[in-house]
Amino acid sequence: MAASFVSPDELHAARDAPGAAPAPSAVVVWHTAADGRIEVENPSWSVFTGQTFEQYRGWAWSEAIHPEDRAAVLHRWQAAVTTGGVFVLHYRLRRHDGEYREVMAQGAPVLVGGVIREWVGTCVDVTAERRAQAALRASEERLRFLDRIGQATRELTDATEVMAVTARMLGQHLGATRCAYADVEPDNDRFTIRSDWSAPGVASSAGVYSLDLFGPQATSNLRHGRHLVVHDVDRELGDEGGGRMFNAIGVKAIICAGLVKQGRLVAMMAVHQATPRHWTPQEISIVGEIVERSWAHIERVRAAAMLREQDRHKDEFLATLAHELRNPLAPIKYAVELMRLSPEGALKAQAHNVIDRQATHMARLIDDLLDVSRISRGMITLQRRSVPLRRLMLEAVETARPAIEAARHRLTLQLPEEDVLLDADPARVVQIIGNLLSNAAKYTPDGGEIRLAGWAAGVRAVIEVVDNGVGVPLEQQGRLFQMFTQLHHSAGRAKGGLGIGLSLVKKLVEMHGGAVRMRSDGLDEGSTFTVELPLARSAGVPPPAVSSQDAAPGQGPRVLVVEDNPDGLAMLVSLLRALGHEVACAADGPEALRQAQAFRPRLVLLDLGLPGMDGYDVARRLRADPQFQKVAIVALTGWGAERDRRRTAEAGFDAHLTKPVEPDALRSVLAHFARVAR
Fold first, then answer.
1. Pair 371, 444 in one domain
2. What pLDDT score does 429 carry?
3. Which of 75, 272, 382, 666 could lock onto 251 through a cystine, CB 3.0 to 4.6 A?
């Protein structure tokens, strides 16, 4: 069989340019002798195949057929010549530029008097159609495969299970040795294969790796969002290019598709082959698409799991909060009843102490909650100054001493020199250290050992709290500083708490530009908390703070108390009178203004949430009256956020006290305005 076909355009071109070779066409017409051999010249066969007449004469035309197709084509052609029947063949024919094209050949005999005189037919280049059909089939198969993965993982709620199912299905679909999905850490280097699929007898690659170990090509490609495609590890990479690491995990060929989001490598999907393999563009493409889809689905699953976990934490927290608030209320109620039954003597003093301790405990719970909320919303501003670490450690010990002594713990102090100065907010550092000490007291069995140490190390101060308490299992240590975390191993072994203390410590330390870490060798092995905070640049030691006790007035100025809570009003009036003040009171705004006119106070303790006319209105009315220009007005309120303090200052208040007011804080305010009044 040989063929030649010249289109009308080619015929015109041939006539117009004698001797010029016809242009190649996608269709040729051929004719042969009755026995199938080429006996006459056909120029267009030469145009398509590039063969000369001598090269395709006789049976030599078959040399243009792809070697893999040639034997089958000749067999079919000779069978057709023998039987004289019409035939259709598909094979690859070499074009003049050396590219093999897929053609469909059709032929039929030309009969004269019932005898075959010759054969004629066509060869049509169907490469484009075949490739389009193949692409369509591949696309349909790709979509069916992606749909199968979607169906298999749609109902899964565990991210690791999604990874495992996806890796198995992709590995089996590609006939690979191993397939793995990996999460990449924010450092763009360390990645974790949590679950992979391996062919029978092939070891798992699950574990933690450094991307840099796999060579510069892998590192560069993946970090820049390009796939790593290696057909033969030894030939293309070599030992220094990453081949040593790939060989160590049994990989000779690999497709690794990296996923970059917002400039950071976040995930990878890798397909391994234990022998060299030529990866097709379709195979490379499907791996890239799978990693994109898998990551999106895994992130959705993780987000849903996080919401479920947050709901669980919320429910646990609310239950714990109710428990923690009821606990101090019970002894307060008992103490009140005890005071009613025994109004005098030692029992009354005991009841007073109980009420004071439990009210302080409740106030601290509420303060911690508010602090966490304020920090989360960026509403806390640090009041930084140069302050001795030694002094802050001692103050923190005093705040935690009741819990430590109640549990009969032995506290060891290793204090720094006085010249170790922090650049920090003193109140917040005391809060940090106090929370760590209280945490140690809570999670150490009675009679335990607690050590507090502090020292300078370079440009930072180091604070360490060590206990021999219940410790923390390794698998739970990563959750320790999360909000509302109550570790399961400590259930029944701690003395209450909302699970926010350590979260608050971490947030406050980081606001200072410091760091906090925890170390424990496991259950019942104790814990060590280490805090690093910046040292002050100057060595000046601030003057010691004035004790609030020293500032308490003896005979103070007249005070007007405005409070709509009857019990709160009565108790505060009694306390102020016990401190030597002349006191008047009012339960609403209009009454407060009348009392101010009649009583002429030097200090007004003014609640904000009054019925009708609120505390802001009362303050504005007082400030508008010239006779009250020098009267000190102090807000007395349960609202204690920074914005609340700014609002009272803008409204003309001289100070802001948050309920429940500590007696020492009240004495300090009274002493200050007593001095001002003089």
1. no
2. 92
3. 272
